[in-house]
Amino acid sequence: MTMARDTTLRKPDLTKGGASAGERSAAGGRTAAVGLEDVAVRFRTKKRDVTALQEVSLDIAMGEFVAIVGPSGCGKSTLLKLVAGLLKASSGAVRLQGERVDGPRHDIGYVFQRAALLEWRTARRNILLQAEMRRMPAEPARRRAAELIEMTGLSGFEDAYPHELSGGMQQRVALCRALLHEPPVLLMDEPFGALDALTREQMNMELNRIWRETGTTVLLVTHSISEAVYLADRVVVMSPRPGTITEIIDVGLEPERDYTETLGRPEFREATGHIRGLLGAASAQD
How buried is residue 59: exposed, middle or buried, by Cβ count under 10 Å (0-12/13-18/19+)? Predict the structure, then answer.
């Protein structure tokens, strides 16, 4: 699926909130891919009641890439679990393509910090595990796996076992597995956090290219400010617990982004500097 996008360079919108993706998609007559309406998550421990998230409202348009940054413990991963239906909101509503999320969703893709590959299965068979679990028709699943292997640069490593792959390659396999069933929404929870700096940059470039080629809606949680700004259309900045949205920043860069050139852009520098100011130097790693 190819998404038509405005490729005009523009200055980042650093105003609080700004026009939501839901407002933009509604204006175009489209349902938001992800919608959170005044969501809160509260739970009880042995010693006290804890509010993890409060008053979180966010709309993400079809095909949009949104990154979430914030201090540790602010509820970023909790937000992903809400969208996936793995956790129920204490109040408010979560919607996926207009449908209320009331339980685990099987139509999303999920990539975690650890690739979590099965050591006794090859790269190809790890990818096809998704097809087996979903009982997808075998031949279309194999064709889709072959397409993804080529798209992610894994050609030649299809029959390699996890211990024979680098960390970056293992994460590519995990990404292929998450995309096998062509999910409309891809959730990513610190997928490159365990990689070395160079491999992480390469994976950022690969993810940007894959996002542009597939048109999948992506919601990424990261502690890296530069990663968030390089990859995303918009960056959601969250407050310390109880987590709420402090500000939503429209990055203002065209979808196709050369890594080195982008890091030198005034739009990139302004957005990253503003986010650092919001979070404080001690609140985010970069």
Answer: buried
pLDDT grade for 45, boundaries at 50, 70 and 90: confident
Cα diameter, the chain: 54
Share of the chain above pLDDT 70, in %: 87
What's the length of the chain?
286
First-to-last CA distance in the chain? 32
Rounded to 5 degrees, φ, ψ at 137 are -55, 135
The upper half-sphere exposure of residue 196, i.e. CA atoms within 13 Å in the direction of its Cβ, equals 5
Q: How far apart, in whole angstroms, are the C-alpha atoms of residue 29 and residue 185?
A: 19
Single-letter amino acid code for the residue at 26 = A
The pTM for the full model equals: 0.85
Taking only the tens place, the pLDDT of each residue in 168-226 is 999 999 999 999 999 999 999 999 888 889 889 989 999 999 999 889 999 999 999 99
DSSP label at 46?
S
Give the containing element (helix H, strand E) for 185. Answer: strand 185-189
> Can you tell me which residue has the tokens 């409309």?
184
